Fold each of these.
Amino acid sequence: MEKKASEIQKERIKDLEQKASLLLEKCTTVTLASVNENGYPRICTITKQKANSFKDIYFITSKRSALNGKATHFENNPKASVCFNIGGDSVTLIGDIEFIEDKELQDMLWNETDRKFFKKGTDDPTFRLLKFKTIEATFWIEGKFRTVKYKKESHK
């Protein structure tokens, strides 16, 4: 029996998603964009702490300024974008940032090399753990291009 076009499309998307997850595993740094206090995008390079495929990505940052900086940007507007690439393959994600207050998870994702920024570790008052949640992904992998939208989870 021949596969339906919709089944073929689902298989192609699943293949791209798997390749995107493998690509992200190989990346230690990615770019993260926030919306600044003037409504402009602000992109920075940041270390990826952990990722659950490309749909949930964790970052550590600091809250040093009440006026600007990504922590303040995300407090005011959770919209974000993440991009990563190796060679000719790239993935651009759109989603939302959530601040993770769970102490156990913070400690689990803590990297001792960050001690130079956070003298008291996860107890440092400037320490912030961010979780990026993907709602849209644009894949350019092995010459294949596709944009996929994902359901936005409601936070209660």
Note: The chain has a mean pLDDT of 92.
Amino acid sequence: MTATKKRFIAGAVCPACNEMDKIQMWDEDGVPHRECVACGYADTLNAQGQSVPKELGTRVNQPKAKVADPKVQGVQFFPNPKLKKPNE
């Protein structure tokens, strides 16, 4: 197996971190891929050069919501009646 040759794309801006000239591109089986060496963002491109999502978001593949910390309590503020305006 031969190593895939990655090349930097001059003037390309990373869609995740907005760094310029940090995008590497390469082909695997005729499919173009790109990766940012600054932040690690990576995706696959279609024939028109548009980003192809890796997987559609569903309730199964999304991270679960965090459980509230029982040590943390909400605080509710009430207006101070002594600070009312005189014409009320």
Note: Residues 81 and 88 are 11 Å apart (CA to CA).
